Amino acid sequence: MEHRQLTERLQKLQRPAAKPAMPRAPKPIPQRLRTRAWLLRGISSIPGELLLSGERLSFTAEGYGSAWSFQLRRLERESAEVGLAKRIEQGTPARVFDLPLGEVQIVFPWYYFSGGLKVRSGGREYRISFGAQASSRGSVNAIGELREVWRMRANGKRWRVVLADSILR
Questions:
Q1: Which CATH number fits domain 30-168: 3.90.950.10, 2.30.29.30, 3.30.1050.10, 3.20.20.70?
Q2: With 70 as the cut, is the pLDDT of residue 150 above it?
């Protein structure tokens, strides 16, 4: 080796190593999580709130969104909640499901791109999205749409972490 190459190698060895990154403190996992969500029914959706509280997972509808009356009646039959369709049509907050975590199977399908989940319990399946249908948002600009997608995915990732912690405890 030439003298110049040896000198360069020696200088590299004598340089101080980069400081190791400080490990970040893990964020506390909430035992209560509440998020705006949409219950998907065919090509329609029902706006509401997905709530994790204690050991229970629930969805409360807040209006009928883009769902038709027949879809609301079918949801009422499937959930066995008497009067559910009428309460949703009237805009009264209506509990669609309230399930103990120990009795549910939660799936985050890859094709939801972290923007939603499926809840299965007792032979029933509820499809949940963390974003409104594009036609119901009223925004047409691309930046607004990208923000909505980012928000949907962030909420989905948060739910995945919280539910994994809650179910695997």
A1: 2.30.29.30
A2: yes
